[in-house]
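INTERNAL TRANSFER SHEET
From: sequence group
To: structure group
Subject: Cobalamin synthesis g c-terminus

Please process the attached sequence and return the structure record in the designated field. Keep the field labels unchanged so the import script can parse them.
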Amino acid sequence: MRDRTVKIWAVTEKGAHLGQRLCAALDGELCLPDKPWASGFSSARTVSSLGEGIASGFHGAGGHVFVMATGIVVRLIASLLKSKAQDPAVVVMDEAGRFAVSLVSGHIGGANRLAQEAAAAVGAVPVITTATDTHGIASVDGVVSERGLVVENPPAIKAVNMALLEKRKPLLWDPMGIYADMADLYVPAGERAEADVVVDCSSDPAKEGALVIRPRRVTVGVGCNRGTDVEEILEGVEKAFQAGGISPLCLKAMASIDVKADEEGILKAAERLGVSLSFYTKDQLSGTDGVVTPSAAALKHVGTVSVCEAAAIQSARMGSLVVPKVKGKNVTAALAMASSTL
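Return from structure group:
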């Protein structure tokens, strides 16, 4: 999972002083070249090579603010950029603290928001150049970032944003009502197959060219025999999604019983999936409403009639069970849906 810490980079002593102010406001980490003057900034991390230091944690950071010339930044990060869906926020500030420029990943990565926050911290002017923002329109990828959604096919964003700029209202399929407050920008689609923008968790294919957006509302509860390897656990999770016809991109969290807190396969599975992992006591699981597949074996071995179903429901903030227990040789998995994005 991505570390949410913002990295503040500076190459001069003056820039480092500005960087300190930004760190305090953004709860960031100051990163400096290994120069004699850098010793005056005791809390800073120093790097012998600026390029290598940036590259080593570029995509793992919550964002980057560079206090230096834009040209330097462009040359430093050019080879690191992958796509608007993967790149972190990149903001550039001048040493005088006059401007904060959103340079890369303005919407999905949150650079526009980071530029505004950095500017507010030091009294600078935020510079936002994305077309939808300059026209006062809520871009589809901006909303995705703000609401914790996931875009399945990022190349389709461009056509939808262009339609919004040209005041053409795309057809929207949104059964969960996630875009309900933006009714003036979209027209409700009569059926999923005709929609230009699909916002749901169904794994059914949308029409060709449609933008598909996934709400991260699904949690998976997992139970397993001791020593089950990560691949078998991941296979069990995949089978649960297949059984429910649900997109794995909607997965937000994994959960199990606390006696599995040291189960290496579960720990590695959550890490591989890039989701949070929580554990519940047998008493918490026993008191869970909505369990449909109680197990006498589970009661005998761990003291509760349900592990995977109850854990999924608990992790979904007492949401609804959408895929009951799917049982494999050594793994059980169940899916629950939260009532709002987790």
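Handover comment: The longest helix spans residues 230-244. The chain has three domains: 6-129, 140-215, 218-337.
Transfer complete.
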